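Record 1 of the preview.
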Amino acid sequence: MRQAVRMHPALFDGPGLFDLPDATPANEPAAGPVAARPAASTPVPPSHHLTETAPASTRDNRPALAPSSGVDIGTAILLATDGSCLRNPGGATGWAYVRSDGVWASAGCPEGTNQIGELQAVVLALSHHPDVPVEIQCDSSYAIGCATAWKKGWQRNNYVNSQRKTVSNLEIIRELHRLIDARTAPLTFTKVKGHDASNKWPLNTAVDVLCGEAALATLQAKAPVSNSGVLEIDWAGRTSRGSAR
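->
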């Protein structure tokens, strides 16, 4: 059965569903594209209207890389990532990504933080797309900084920060850096505005819903969860990309 995923600001009005993120370190990355690898080529733009269809998966349970939408995986794959913690910190936490061709995946754990959700979303996206050019739209300066601006310094200093303390979320960040260092294809991050009522970044709006649903699912299950599927995209509503301010 198809289920509409309605892109409307009221989706985000639930108390505590999308708490403010943890404080981020100083010198956060500037808005707009940030390359972790050479800049990726232009992908197909996202759309405003999304409808859920039957899940698609490969034999290793990852979402299929190129469903019947005809997206050319030789160009950069555009996707958005996001995380949600129902009670930050320590509450049920979910994370997700959604691609411009509609493929999405999500997961969650019973206890976490907003920062953990944001990081795990990027880790999930990169682990499912290891050998293709990727552009990630992300509303978390913290997650982008961990993947780009602060990466080399942390690795050089054995993950001790400028306050001479071990970097928070160390194991997740190590895995994030391992995935980035293992890549042979370009990776670019674009900072976008979260919870944008104008829906300028519809992939971000959609992934916001998905990670919130993952957090609720793990709260109800009291155990880790994972899910994936495909969103049917109405290509009539296209938006520009790469110009977040």
